[in-house]
Sequence to fold (246 residues):
Amino acid sequence: MRIKVLGTQSPYVTENHNCPGFLIESGQHRIMLDCGSGTHRMLDFPNDLNNLHVFLTHLHRDHYNDIFNIQYASYVFHNQKRLENPVEIYLPMSPQRIYGDIISESNSYTKYHKIKSNTKVHIGELEITFLLVEHAVETYAVKVTDGRNTIVYTSDVSFISREQLVDFAKYANVLISESSLLKEHGFPKINSHLTAHQAATIAKEAEVGKLVLTHFWPEEDVNKYLSEAKEIFEDVEVAIEGMILM
Fold:
């Protein structure tokens, strides 16, 4: 598996930085984890639309905004006979208004699949499973494995889900974790996002191979997140757009 970082910031883009997204490639198959603002500009059109499966972990705009770009691009390239198979989009059903807005887009060449906690998807040699986690809306962490290597992406999550995430990510090769907050921000320990310290705690307890931090405030120096996480877990790096993680 090859993992490319498409976006790392929230809630808005800045120069050279996009909202959350990751692209996993395995053979001829492509798995896109989230589709935040700006992520589409990191794709190679129309090539990356071929055999593309997009997983929207939750329906907050910073994680799904660019799905409309991909939908319309699929429509255009299919009409040009440059895209044979539809883009497959997997997403939760709530909030219902946003779900309906996405799946009702007529100018697209796509298929839609509902994500639930017991959903299991097989794409080539990849198996994708989901964990319902605590956040402001229905949200899923995602595990992708080919039987040799395992990647877990937390999406946005509260520390309330710590135990479930530790079990879900146990012994993963790579844990990609949101770390929106720093201890110095002064937020309560339990809220809808993780600090870098909490992300590292989950990584340590899950005994993962590597922790990759993402979902940063645009105004913050990412080295602060790195330093805070390294207090708990040594093998940590910060995600940067264009970086290849595996």
